[in-house]
Amino acid sequence: MIIDHHPFNVNDKGNLEIGGLDTIDLAQKYGTPLYVYDVSIIRENCRAFVNTFRELGVNAQVAYASKAFSSIAMLQVVKQEGLSLDVVSEGELFTALQAEFPVEKIHLHGNNKSFHELTMAIENNIGCIVVDNFYEIQMIEKLLQEHNKEIDILMRVTPGIISKTHQYIMTGNEDSKFGFNLHNGQADEAFKLLYNHDYIRFKGLHCHIGSQIFETDRFVSATDLLFKKLKEWKNDYGFVPDILNLGGGFGIRYTSEDKPLPYNKYVEALVSNVKQHVEDVNIQMPEIWIEPGRAIAGNAGITLYTIGSIKKIPGVREYISVDGGLTDNLRPALYQAKYEGVVANKVNQPTTNEVSIAGKCCESGDMLIWDLPVPKIESGDILAVFSTGAYGYSMSSHYNRFPKAAVVFVEDGVDKQVVQRETFQDVVKNDLSYE
Ligand SMILES: Cc1ncc(COP(=O)(O)O)c(C=O)c1O
Ligand SMILES: N[C@@H](CCCC[NH3+])C(=O)O
């Protein structure tokens, strides 16, 4: 049996499987809460994007947005699949260097890159910096001069597109902290600073309209606006872009309400639109870059929890508490994100009632799932929550001094711990005495 809407099986014991392994065995072996990834799904996701570009005969880079889940093992898998990498901080860049990710395939993002971050990027000869603001341009110029180096630069622009997603994860709208506004003269001003520069190799534009988006029309509208500007710059300055980075944001299924498009559909829509514009403006086809994060890691991961207290409030609801919560999955509290889950040791049992899954943090808002249909639950059962592979571990915290959970990769029936569970010593390791 395959679990409804999620790419996992149930074994003969009626237990949830991931990558051919019994989740109950994994929970016993590594403890809970536990993030488990099916690496074959990560690879499948990478290939879906890469192969579509290949089939369309378009030069492309698919950069994994490592903010979704960055760890040395994860970046090694992405490297094996031939992807490029989007990093947004020194920590993400450091992780990439530790994973020996090819530096020429690393792209640095960020709306407030520090001098130190830019220095690290330039000293390590990363492939590209996606410039976000005027302050950053000044710093890059100074650094390149000092180091007597050149670097590829893309300009991040804000096209004024409102994507259909949660307000906190829209990024292409006019009122955004990201990028140069495409319409109010700021992008033009930045262009004049970047184009024909002694050290800066200005390669083209970047645009990311938001995250968890299920349709192609806003991506296409954003691309239309980029080309409107590119046409002006071609006419006024003879500028022709080598690269267009159209961002990430491709939606995944968390619950049955989500209807994600197959990944090739996004790529096909973007490529077909770019091809039309290229013909219209009469330029060569630029390289197309994209930056999926969630679409690579999201559905490959699940989180296993042990169920503890069961509290029934007659006529109100039943709270089932687990041994994690917003410390390992902030998304429900931050974005009211919805998830689905199953009792992993009772998957085949008929569901008899609806319960709400509470985290154990000292916050009423620490609820992982509202109104989940479940079979009869007992303390000690294992709950599996689906699609926690993106923005789960990467947004985890030590709130209430919880140690961070372990991460296990499973592939071809073999499990391997790739991030250790933190100890209480890890939690206090930076604390200094005041006695
Ligand atoms: C610039 C940029 N690129 C890529 C991403 C990855 O987004 P997603 O994980 O939705 O693909 C983000 C996050 O929204 C982003 O800000
Ligand atoms: N952290 C967000 C998406 C990242 C937005 C990055 N610009 C989420 O969990 O949905």
TrEMBL record:
Residues reported in the UniProt entry to bind pyridoxal 5'-phosphate: 249, 291-294, 391
Domain Orn/DAP/Arg decarboxylase 2 N-terminal positions: 42-297
GO terms, molecular function: diaminopimelate decarboxylase activity
Pathway where it operates: Amino-acid biosynthesis; L-lysine biosynthesis via DAP pathway; L-lysine from DL-2,6-diaminopimelate: step 1/1
Residues annotated for substrate binding in this entry: 294, 331, 335, 363, 391
EC number(s) from the headed UniProt entry: 4.1.1.20
Reaction catalysed by this enzyme: meso-2,6-diaminopimelate + H(+) = L-lysine + CO2
Cofactor: pyridoxal 5'-phosphate
Reported function: Specifically catalyzes the decarboxylation of meso-diaminopimelate (meso-DAP) to L-lysine.
PANTHER family (alphabetical): DIAMINOPIMELATE DECARBOXYLASE, GROUP IV DECARBOXYLASE
Family membership: Belongs to the Orn/Lys/Arg decarboxylase class-II family. LysA subfamily.
Protein name per its UniProtKB record: Diaminopimelate decarboxylase
Source organism of this protein record: Virgibacillus byunsanensis
